[in-house]
């Protein structure tokens, strides 16, 4: 029995909450994952998982074993990483997750340039506006635009601040007027981002006061380009990153409103599991990404 393979299968089942999800993450069949875990239980002569038709949970013994497995597998990966440092050229696969709008507008060209520099490395780019756990979902690296966080399991590398502004189309402004005070936004149609923890709460900071505004409108979306298009069509006021609306501001199809009131700063950052921060492929990509977007 390949004990490391069985341990990896077992930990992935615990992380994913089931055999089918673990199999998808590992790229193998569900029966293979099931067999690996059963072999491990037989070898140890203990029950590691409590199985039901709806979910799979670790037994108390299984939970204790899971915590040890995570540490052991991390040490094995660290040893593999140390060996990989001997390579001058990165090889294998680099799995990246990034937000949809930034990915389509800017990251796609950068990825093409990066792969041209390192032809032995295969990049798998997934665009998704969800905030994901890169370790649990099997990504080497995640690109995110959010407020900085801290975690004992992840490395957050800040790249650059991302300014956001309130904007509306000339047609909307002509019909509804320009709010002069953030509190007036509650009387306007506001297009808000559905994936934010705050939901339809906008936080704006002025020179002397901070505002928490409950906004409502005809559209809520988890994608900034959808909100931008709606704002251009005159459906309401949007709070969007400058990189999404740069061209619309230049073309004057959108205009900035309430420029003296700013939302909290968000940052373009790279996130990756703590035990992978020394890999050649991660190091080279972070250096490349900093050069591309740090300014």
Task: Please provide a written account of the structure.
This protein is α/β, with parallel strands linked by helices. Helix content is 41%, strand content 24%. It is built from nine helices and 14 strands. It has a five-stranded mixed β-sheet, with helices on one face. Strands 11-8-12-7-13 form a five-stranded mixed β-sheet. A hairpin with a 4-residue loop joins β1 and β2. α1 crosses α3 and α1 crosses α4. The radius of gyration is 23 Å and the shape is elongated. The mean pLDDT is 86.
Task: List strands and helices in order, with pairings.
Blueprint: H1 3-16, H2 19-26, H3 30-44, E1 49-51, E2 56-58, H4 60-84, E3 92-98, H5 100-117, E4 121-127, E5 141-146, E6 154-162, E7 164-168, H6 170-176, E8 190-193, E9 201-205, E10 210-214, E11 220-221, H7 224-232, E12 237-241, H8 242-251, E13 255-257, E14 266-273, H9 280-293
Parallel strand pairs: 3-4, 3-5, 8-11, 8-12
Antiparallel strand pairs: 1-2, 5-14, 6-14, 7-12, 7-13, 9-10
Helix pairs in contact: 1-2, 1-3, 1-4, 2-3
Q: What is the rounded distance between the termini? A: 51 Å
- Please provide the ordered H/E string of secondary-structure elements: HHHEEHEHEEEEHEEEEHEHEEH
Taking Cα atoms only, what radius of gyration do you get, to the nearest Å?
23 Å
Question: What's the helix count?
Answer: 9
The biggest beta sheet reads: 5 strands, mixed
Structural class: alpha/beta
Dominant shape? elongated
Helicity level, as a percent range? 40-55%
Mean pLDDT: 86
Report the β-strand fraction as a percent range.
15-25%
Quantity of strands, as a count: 14
Strand order of the largest sheet: 4-3-5-14-6
Low-confidence stretches: none
């Amino acid at each position: 029995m390949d004990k490391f393979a069985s341990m990896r299968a077992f930990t992935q089942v615990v992380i994913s909450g089931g055999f089918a999800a673990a199999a998808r993450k590992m790229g193998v069949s569900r029966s293979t994952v099931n067999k690996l875990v059963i072999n491990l239980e037989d070898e140890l002569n203990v029950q590691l998982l409590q199985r039901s038709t709806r979910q799979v949970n670790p037994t108390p013994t299984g939970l204790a074993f899971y915590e040890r497995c995570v540490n052991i597998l991390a040490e094995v990966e660290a040893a593999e990483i140390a060996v990989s440092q001997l390579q001058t050229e990165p090889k294998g696969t680099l799995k990246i997750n990034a937000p949809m709008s930034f990915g389509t507008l800017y990251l796609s060209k950068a990825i093409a340039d990066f792969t041209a520099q390192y032809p032995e490395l295969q990049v798998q780019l997934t665009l998704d506006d969800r905030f994901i756990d890169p370790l649990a979902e099997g990504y080497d690296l995640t690109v995110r635009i959010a407020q900085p966080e801290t975690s004992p399991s992840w490395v957050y590398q800040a790249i650059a601040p991302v300014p956001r502004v309130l904007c509306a189309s000339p047609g909307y402004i002509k019909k509804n007027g320009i709010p002069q005070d953030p509190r007036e936004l509650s009387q306007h149609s506001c297009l808000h981002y559905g994936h934010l923890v705050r939901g339809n709460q906008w936080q704006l900071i002025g020179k002397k006061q901070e505002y928490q505004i409950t906004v409502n409108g005809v559209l809520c979306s988890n994608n900034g380009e959808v909100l931008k298009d709606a704002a251009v069509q005159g459906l309401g006021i949007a709070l969007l990153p400058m990189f999404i609306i740069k061209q619309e501001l230049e073309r004057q199809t959108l205009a900035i409103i309430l420029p003296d009131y700013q939302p909290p700063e968000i940052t373009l950052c790279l996130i990756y599991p703590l035990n992978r921060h020394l890999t050649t492929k991660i190091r080279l990509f972070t250096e490349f990404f900093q050069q591309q977007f740090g300014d």
